[in-house]
């Protein structure tokens, strides 16, 4: 399976996916750490992919998503954005709504 197919398969298998540097328990950059914290505050259950452990995904995801940096948050296979957008959505209450909607859709 090529790397783009692996990305698509991961996105199809999980309602909320965070491609990040490190893991939620041990983030390897401040932006990834803040994105994880925002998702936790919004009550999200999410799947994390450590791009440091998968150089193919790290190299190809920016081309797939047209987003150059990490972390990258996807909900229902759609790119939401990086750390700044995630924090803005948290502050506005929108992230919590998106997380609830994703959880509801996943349980249907």
UniProtKB/TrEMBL annotation:
Keywords: 2Fe-2S, Iron, Iron-sulfur, Metal-binding, Redox-active center. PROSITE patterns: GLUTAREDOXIN_2. It comes from the Bacteria. SUPFAM superfamilies: Thioredoxin-like. Residues 16-80 form the Glutaredoxin domain. Transmembrane segments: none annotated. Glutathione binds at residues 21, 58, 70, 83-84. Pfam families: Glutaredoxin. One of its GO terms (molecular function) is disulfide oxidoreductase activity. Gene3D superfamilies: Glutaredoxin. [2Fe-2S] cluster binds at residue 29. Belongs to the glutaredoxin family. Monothiol subfamily. This is Glutaredoxin. It comes from Mizugakiibacter sediminis. The lineage of its organism: Bacteria, Pseudomonadati, Pseudomonadota, Gammaproteobacteria, Lysobacterales.
């Amino acid at each position: 399976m090529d790397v783009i197919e692996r990305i698509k398969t991961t996105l199809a298998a999980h309602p909320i996916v965070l491609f990040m540097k490190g893991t939620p328990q041990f983030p390897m950059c401040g932006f990834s750490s803040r994105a994880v914290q925002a998702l936790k505050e919004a009550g999200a259950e999410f799947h994390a992919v450590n791009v440091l452990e998968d150089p193919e995904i790290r190299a190809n995801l920016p081309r797939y998503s047209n987003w150059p940096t990490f972390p990258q948050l996807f909900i229902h296979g759609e790119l939401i954005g990086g750390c700044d957008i995630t924090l803005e959505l948290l502050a506005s209450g929108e992230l919590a709504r998106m997380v609830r909607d994703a959880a509801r859709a996943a349980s249907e």
